[in-house]
Design brief:
Helix content: 25-40%
Number of helices: 11
Number of strands: 10
Shape: globular
Strand order of the largest sheet: 3-2-1-7-8-10-9
Structural class: alpha/beta
Largest sheet: 7 strands, mixed
Length: 367
Amino acid sequence: MHKLATKHWAENVADPTKNTKCRIDWVKSQCLEYFFKGGTEVYWDREINIKHKIATNQSVDGILTYQEHSDSEIINHEQAPSDKTGQPISGSKLICSDHESTEDKESDIRKESHDGNSSATSCCSKKFKTSRNTKFVQSNDGDMLDLIKSLDIETSKVKLLDVGSCYNPFGHVKYFEVTAIDLAPSCEEVLQCDFLSLQVGSNDVFSENRKQVVQLTTNSFDTIVFCLLLEYLPSPEQRYACCKKAYNLLKNGGLLLIITPDSKHVGANARFMKSWRHVMSNLGFMRIKYEKLPHAHCLAFRKCFYKEVATRWARLQKFTKDDELFRSETKIFIPQDFTAGIRDDNIDALSDDKITGVDVYNELPYT
C-alpha cells in the first residue's frame, strides 16, 4: 500500500491528462478553509440560526444551508449560482474553491496575517458575508466564541487523527499535529491500533513500548480522517461503529473527513451517499461538503454543538418503508453489501461495467 500510494498514485496525480486529485491535498484544503479561513465561524453562525428556528418552530426556508442541499447538488465552483452582476450568491458555493491550490490558500492566509486582516474577512467568510450580517442569529456567548474562532496558521495546529494511515502522509504538514494509526503500520511513525477495539476514555493510553494505542481521550481531536477505510470493513455495523467512535473522539465543531472509492458517475450511487448522510445526521453530524472526484466520493461532516441541529435534516426526509438503505440508523451500507459473490467459473459473465470497476483499483489517484 505504501508503494502503491507514493509511486503509482503519485504518478497519476502528476499527469495532467488524467484529471485526478490528490486526497492529501483535498484533506488539507478542507482544514485550511474550515479552521484558518473563517469556516468555524460560518458554521457556528449557521448552527445557532437553525437552533433558534427549531426553538421557535420557524422554518429555515430561504436560508441556503449545506445540509439543505440534495445529494445531486452541483459541485464545481464555476457552476455556482450567481446574481445579476455575475457575483456568486452568498452561501451557494462550496467552502473550498477547487481551482485554488492548497499552496495558494496557505499563502493567502499568511498574507492576511501579515497585513493585519482578521481571518474572518478571508475567502471563506467573504462568501457568506451577506447572510452572516443579515440573516443569522449571532451568539453573545463569549466563552463559546473563543472555542469557534479561526486559528492562526503561523502559531496553531489542527489536532488530526488519521485512521488507517499506512505511512502517515499528513506528518509533514506543519499546521497538523498528527496521530497516525493503522492495523498494520508501514513505518515507525504510525502507531499500531485496531480502531474498532480502541477504547475512548479520559486520557490517552499506550503500550509499554509506545508503539500501540490502547485508548484515546474523548472530545480531543479537531479532525479525523477516514481515507479508504470504511469500504474495507465487512459489515454495515462495523462502519457505523467507526463513525460513532469518531464522533466521541471529536471536539464539538470538529470535522470527520471521509474519502471512499467510486469510479461511477455522481448519480450512480447517490442513494448510498444520501443514506450515509441520514445515518451521520442521526449521530450528530452535519454534512458541510460533498465532492465527487473521478474515482472517489469526498465528504466532510461537522460534529454539531447541538445534536438536534444535525438530526433535523434526517427528520425532514421521507423514505419508503421498504428501502433497506434507510431502514436502520445504525448501519452504513456500501454497494458491495448487495452484490452476490463472484465465482471463478462465471467470471466471463461479468458485465463490462463490473470489469471496469475492478480495473479501476489500478488507477486510484490519491497519494
